[in-house]
Amino acid sequence: MGFRIYDASAFYAGIPFASPELGHTTSLVFEEIEHIKKCHGAIEILIQTGRLKIMDAEPQSIKVVVDMAKKTGDFQELSKADISAVALALQTGGHIVTDDFAVSNLAKNMKISIHPVMTNGIRDVGRWRHYCSACKKEFTAVNACPICGNRLTRKLLKRKPS
After folding, report:
1. Residue 110's pLDDT is what?
2. Are both 10 and 87 inside the same structural domain?
3. Of 17, 100, 116, 127, which one has the greatest count of Cβ atoms within 10 A?
4. pLDDT recorded at residue 152
5. Nearest 10 degrees: Cα torsion 100, 101, 103, 107
6. What rounded mean pLDDT belongs to the chain?
7. pLDDT, tens digit (0-9, with 9 covering 90-100), for 27-43
8. Are 37 and 7 in contact (CB under 8 A)?
9. Pairwise CA distance, residues 7 & 76, whole Å
10. What is the CATH classification number for the domain harbouring 73?
11. Residues pairing with 131 in the sheet
């Protein structure tokens, strides 16, 4: 089994604190959970005891993940921290500990193993279609229709199981 890669949702659920296993996260996820670090020294203890390592993915891995996120339609829903976690899992062969739907959909589309935190995980995997319900046109990288101004609707085009 590869590395355990924690995204922010794993920290919010307390998984790294309850698990005796070594886990990894990225510096961007580490920054995103800054408020947890201020509340208590638990994250520092994880680092000092070697149960949590902070490492970042290489730029090429990030580029591959960004390109795939744009293809799956998840890009608009992902933070830079989310992208960094998926890129680290891709690079290391690790699995992601998350409940984030966009992270899970992207990772599963990339054949990266996912371990849900507090849910059963996602059932359907596919590509998101962002479209205007008024104009019926499909768009990427925008939240509102540039033609009529309506908020775009998302629909998951399910991938057939492999």
Report:
1. 94
2. yes
3. 100
4. 77
5. 130
6. 84
7. 999 998 877 665 567 88
8. no
9. 17
10. 3.40.50.1010
11. 138, 153
Q: What is the pTM of this model?
A: 0.75
Q: What is the pLDDT of residues 95-124, one digit of tens each?
A: 999 988 889 989 999 999 999 886 665 566
Asked if residue 138 has pLDDT above 60, the reply is yes
Tokens of 70: 């744009």
DSSP per residue over 104-125, as a string?
HHHHHHTT--EE-SSS---S--
Which H helix or E strand runs over 72? helix 59-72
Q: What is the DSSP string of 15-69?
A: HHHH--S-EEE-HHHHHHTHHHHHH-SHHHHHHHTTSEEE----HHHHHHHHHHH
Torsion angles phi and psi, residue 137, rounded to 5: -100, 150
Residue 137 and residue 99 in one domain: no
Question: Is 87 contained in some domain?
Answer: yes
Structural domain boundaries enclosing 20: 4-115
Q: Is residue 120 part of a domain?
A: no
Residue at 139 is within a domain: yes
Asked, for residue 121, whether it belongs to a domain, the answer is no
Same domain, 80 and 142: no
Quote the pLDDT of residue 155: 72
